[in-house]
Fold this protein.
Amino acid sequence: MDAAGFAAHVGPVLIHRTRAENRAAIAALGLMPAAQLAHRAGVAPEALVLRPERMRLQIGAHRALLTHQRPLLAGRGDFLDAHTPKSWALQLDRRLFFWPTRRGAAFGASLDGAVVTLPLDARRFFAAFAPDIDLSPINSGNATRRPARRGDWLYVPVSAGWDAFAENRRARGLVASRDRIGEVSIRRAIPPDLLRHLLTEDML
Protein backbone atom coordinates (compact mmCIF):
# COMPACT_ATOMS: atom_id res chain seq x y z
CA MET A 1 0.00 0.00 0.00
CA ASP A 2 1.35 3.40 -0.94
CA ALA A 3 0.32 6.88 0.23
CA ALA A 4 -2.35 7.21 -2.47
CA GLY A 5 -3.85 3.84 -1.59
CA PHE A 6 -3.85 4.67 2.11
CA ALA A 7 -5.64 7.98 1.47
CA ALA A 8 -8.14 6.21 -0.76
CA HIS A 9 -9.13 3.95 2.15
CA VAL A 10 -9.10 6.42 5.05
CA GLY A 11 -10.04 9.61 3.21
CA PRO A 12 -7.88 12.68 2.64
CA VAL A 13 -7.74 13.55 6.34
CA LEU A 14 -7.03 11.58 9.50
CA ILE A 15 -8.60 13.02 12.63
CA HIS A 16 -7.21 13.07 16.15
CA ARG A 17 -9.61 14.37 18.78
CA THR A 18 -8.70 15.44 22.30
CA ARG A 19 -9.87 17.70 25.08
CA ALA A 20 -9.45 21.36 24.14
CA GLU A 21 -7.44 22.07 27.28
CA ASN A 22 -4.69 19.79 25.94
CA ARG A 23 -3.97 22.14 23.04
CA ALA A 24 -1.21 24.11 24.81
CA ALA A 25 0.60 20.94 25.91
CA ILE A 26 0.33 19.47 22.40
CA ALA A 27 1.71 22.66 20.86
CA ALA A 28 4.73 22.47 23.17
CA LEU A 29 5.30 18.72 23.44
CA GLY A 30 3.61 17.24 20.38
CA LEU A 31 1.32 14.23 20.54
CA MET A 32 2.36 11.40 22.85
CA PRO A 33 0.72 8.13 23.85
CA ALA A 34 -0.74 8.16 27.35
CA ALA A 35 1.98 5.86 28.71
CA GLN A 36 4.70 8.20 27.44
CA LEU A 37 2.93 11.21 28.95
CA ALA A 38 2.78 9.36 32.26
CA HIS A 39 6.50 8.60 32.11
CA ARG A 40 7.27 12.27 31.43
CA ALA A 41 5.07 13.20 34.41
CA GLY A 42 6.83 10.72 36.73
CA VAL A 43 3.78 8.44 36.92
CA ALA A 44 3.98 4.68 36.38
CA PRO A 45 2.04 3.69 33.23
CA GLU A 46 0.38 0.97 35.29
CA ALA A 47 -1.34 3.71 37.30
CA LEU A 48 -3.34 4.65 34.19
CA VAL A 49 -4.75 1.19 33.54
CA LEU A 50 -8.54 0.89 33.40
CA ARG A 51 -9.00 4.42 34.74
CA PRO A 52 -12.70 5.03 35.41
CA GLU A 53 -12.30 8.81 35.37
CA ARG A 54 -10.23 11.34 33.47
CA MET A 55 -6.69 11.77 34.79
CA ARG A 56 -4.66 14.98 34.79
CA LEU A 57 -0.86 14.82 34.39
CA GLN A 58 1.63 17.61 35.02
CA ILE A 59 4.65 17.68 32.70
CA GLY A 60 6.84 20.60 33.65
CA ALA A 61 4.78 23.72 32.97
CA HIS A 62 2.20 21.81 30.92
CA ARG A 63 -0.89 19.85 31.88
CA ALA A 64 -2.40 16.97 29.96
CA LEU A 65 -5.84 15.52 30.60
CA LEU A 66 -6.26 11.85 29.72
CA THR A 67 -9.69 10.54 28.88
CA HIS A 68 -11.22 7.75 30.96
CA GLN A 69 -11.39 4.13 29.83
CA ARG A 70 -15.05 3.53 30.63
CA PRO A 71 -15.81 2.29 27.07
CA LEU A 72 -13.37 -0.57 27.70
CA LEU A 73 -14.58 -1.14 31.24
CA ALA A 74 -18.07 -1.67 29.83
CA GLY A 75 -16.95 -4.91 28.18
CA ARG A 76 -18.76 -8.04 29.30
CA GLY A 77 -17.81 -11.62 28.55
CA ASP A 78 -14.70 -13.04 26.95
CA PHE A 79 -13.91 -10.74 24.05
CA LEU A 80 -10.10 -10.70 24.40
CA ASP A 81 -7.61 -13.21 22.97
CA ALA A 82 -4.45 -13.75 25.06
CA HIS A 83 -5.16 -10.57 27.03
CA THR A 84 -6.81 -9.48 30.24
CA PRO A 85 -8.68 -6.17 30.39
CA LYS A 86 -5.67 -4.72 32.21
CA SER A 87 -3.10 -5.86 29.65
CA TRP A 88 -5.31 -4.67 26.80
CA ALA A 89 -5.70 -1.26 28.47
CA LEU A 90 -1.94 -1.07 28.90
CA GLN A 91 -1.29 -1.66 25.21
CA LEU A 92 -3.94 0.93 24.30
CA ASP A 93 -2.03 3.48 26.38
CA ARG A 94 1.07 2.87 24.26
CA ARG A 95 -0.70 4.02 21.08
CA LEU A 96 -1.83 7.22 19.44
CA PHE A 97 -5.18 6.86 17.70
CA PHE A 98 -6.57 8.50 14.59
CA TRP A 99 -9.87 8.19 12.78
CA PRO A 100 -10.69 8.11 9.08
CA THR A 101 -12.49 11.15 7.70
CA ARG A 102 -15.88 9.45 7.82
CA ARG A 103 -15.51 8.32 11.47
CA GLY A 104 -13.90 11.32 13.13
CA ALA A 105 -17.10 13.12 14.08
CA ALA A 106 -18.64 9.96 15.52
CA PHE A 107 -15.63 9.37 17.77
CA GLY A 108 -15.89 12.91 19.08
CA ALA A 109 -19.26 12.10 20.61
CA SER A 110 -17.50 9.88 23.18
CA LEU A 111 -15.42 12.77 24.54
CA ASP A 112 -17.18 14.92 27.10
CA GLY A 113 -16.48 18.63 27.47
CA ALA A 114 -14.85 20.97 24.96
CA VAL A 115 -13.07 19.05 22.21
CA VAL A 116 -10.48 20.07 19.63
CA THR A 117 -10.13 18.27 16.31
CA LEU A 118 -6.66 17.94 14.78
CA PRO A 119 -6.92 17.19 11.03
CA LEU A 120 -3.84 15.48 9.59
CA ASP A 121 -3.11 15.08 5.92
CA ALA A 122 -3.40 11.34 5.25
CA ARG A 123 -0.70 11.20 2.57
CA ARG A 124 1.82 13.14 4.65
CA PHE A 125 0.96 10.94 7.65
CA PHE A 126 1.69 7.83 5.59
CA ALA A 127 4.98 9.26 4.34
CA ALA A 128 6.03 10.08 7.91
CA PHE A 129 5.08 6.83 9.63
CA ALA A 130 4.79 3.91 7.24
CA PRO A 131 5.45 1.07 8.03
CA ASP A 132 4.73 1.91 11.71
CA ILE A 133 1.01 2.36 10.99
CA ASP A 134 -1.44 -0.25 12.32
CA LEU A 135 -4.96 -0.62 10.95
CA SER A 136 -8.05 -1.80 12.82
CA PRO A 137 -11.64 -2.24 11.63
CA ILE A 138 -13.05 -1.21 15.03
CA ASN A 139 -12.47 1.24 17.84
CA SER A 140 -10.13 -1.08 19.72
CA GLY A 141 -10.67 0.68 23.06
CA ASN A 142 -14.46 0.45 22.99
CA ALA A 143 -16.21 -2.62 24.40
CA THR A 144 -19.73 -1.29 24.83
CA ARG A 145 -22.80 -3.21 23.68
CA ARG A 146 -21.66 -6.50 22.10
CA PRO A 147 -17.87 -6.09 21.96
CA ALA A 148 -16.13 -7.45 18.90
CA ARG A 149 -13.46 -10.05 19.55
CA ARG A 150 -9.94 -8.67 19.62
CA GLY A 151 -6.33 -9.48 20.38
CA ASP A 152 -2.93 -8.42 19.13
CA TRP A 153 -3.91 -9.87 15.76
CA LEU A 154 -6.53 -7.10 15.36
CA TYR A 155 -3.85 -4.54 14.47
CA VAL A 156 -2.64 -5.18 10.94
CA PRO A 157 0.51 -3.28 9.87
CA VAL A 158 -0.11 -1.14 6.81
CA SER A 159 3.03 -2.73 5.36
CA ALA A 160 1.16 -6.06 5.19
CA GLY A 161 -1.06 -4.65 2.44
CA TRP A 162 -4.75 -4.04 1.95
CA ASP A 163 -5.85 -7.65 1.46
CA ALA A 164 -4.14 -8.78 4.67
CA PHE A 165 -6.15 -6.19 6.58
CA ALA A 166 -9.45 -6.56 4.75
CA GLU A 167 -9.48 -10.37 5.12
CA ASN A 168 -8.02 -10.54 8.64
CA ARG A 169 -11.26 -11.09 10.57
CA ARG A 170 -13.04 -12.96 7.81
CA ALA A 171 -10.22 -15.51 7.68
CA ARG A 172 -10.80 -16.09 11.40
CA GLY A 173 -14.52 -16.68 10.89
CA LEU A 174 -15.47 -13.57 12.85
CA VAL A 175 -17.19 -11.58 10.09
CA ALA A 176 -18.83 -12.45 6.79
CA SER A 177 -17.40 -9.69 4.62
CA ARG A 178 -14.19 -7.76 4.07
CA ASP A 179 -13.38 -5.06 6.58
CA ARG A 180 -12.98 -1.33 6.13
CA ILE A 181 -10.58 0.79 8.19
CA GLY A 182 -12.21 2.08 11.36
CA GLU A 183 -9.12 3.15 13.28
CA VAL A 184 -5.47 3.99 12.63
CA SER A 185 -2.79 3.87 15.32
CA ILE A 186 0.95 4.23 15.80
CA ARG A 187 3.11 3.29 18.78
CA ARG A 188 5.24 6.42 18.85
CA ALA A 189 5.04 10.13 19.55
CA ILE A 190 4.73 12.94 17.02
CA PRO A 191 7.11 15.84 17.78
CA PRO A 192 5.65 19.37 17.58
CA ASP A 193 7.37 20.40 14.33
CA LEU A 194 6.33 17.22 12.54
CA LEU A 195 2.79 17.55 13.85
CA ARG A 196 2.55 21.07 12.41
CA HIS A 197 3.76 19.73 9.08
CA LEU A 198 1.06 17.05 9.11
CA LEU A 199 -1.83 19.35 10.05
CA THR A 200 -4.05 20.58 7.24
CA GLU A 201 -4.95 23.67 9.30
CA ASP A 202 -3.00 25.86 11.71
CA MET A 203 -4.48 24.44 14.92
CA LEU A 204 -1.56 24.96 17.33
Notes: The mean pLDDT is 93. The radius of gyration is 16 Å. The chain is about 30% helix and 20% strand. The beta strands are 13-19, 55-59, 62-66, 96-100, 115-121, 134-136, 156-157, 183-186.
